[in-house]
Input
Amino acid sequence: MKAITGTSFNFPNQKGKYTGKVRDVYDIDGQYLVMVVTDRISAFDVVLPEGIPFKGQILNSIAAKELDATSDILPNWKVAVPNKAVTVGLKCQPFKVEMVIRGYLAGHAWREYKEGKRVICGVRMPDGMVQNQKFPTPIVTPTSKAAEGHDEDISREEIIAQGICTAEEYDKLERYTRAIFQRGTELAAKKGLILVDTKYEFGKRDGVIYLMDEVHTPDSSRYFYADGYEKRLEEGLPQRQLSKEFVREWLMANGFQGKQGQSVPEMTPEVVSSITERYIELYEHITGEAFSRDEYGPEQMEKDILECLKTL
Output
């Protein structure tokens, strides 16, 4: 199947279109959003030159399952999935913050820790920890939602002071974040996985807080394999990861970290195919189901969406 790297639909009552790094989002009458998860792939804040076939289907399908699995905790934006790579949902007013939660000392938190920092986003981390060690209690380390460039760490106090949300709203967002993470942790454990860290986005509609966007996908979350975790931790070995990290590692091994003057290495058909296979592996481990490759083009996608919009 050829990768779907972009769409240019024009739906009835369409008010606008937003093109993100990997998603095309259509505003329908200011009430609904059609989110097309394309096969574009980004790393180091750069959209890579080749799309990854089936990646959109994989990420959207995981997110849909995880939204359903957490819908008893709070309402979410999903209304329908008319196509494996498309979610149609309620348009909400987003809080301009990403609620990042970390159960283990990994990634950005570890990089800060090994530089000697013990406070991140106003949250103190215990002394004497090692990379990939479990925190006594998961820590919530929000980031500001930047319109351009990198998201920045931000504390609860700064979020409230900047008027991003009220103290009452923030406390509710943190409670939801911890509850969803606990559910995600339990679901991952059943598949032999550890949910290491992830991020959630929330919005408001008619005064009600909704969970938005993707949830527990390998693009928004980091997973470790539970088998061998303790042994690797004791021996100081890297953990076996289930995330998009393998793409970043391939880029770094080929001299690219998104810095000025660096060029993205050639993405040969073999490289693209290998990334597709890894994403399918991610899907099957996270969901416990075999992935079926639905081959279609943008025309079928548009037809599926139009049928769905008629029912709203």
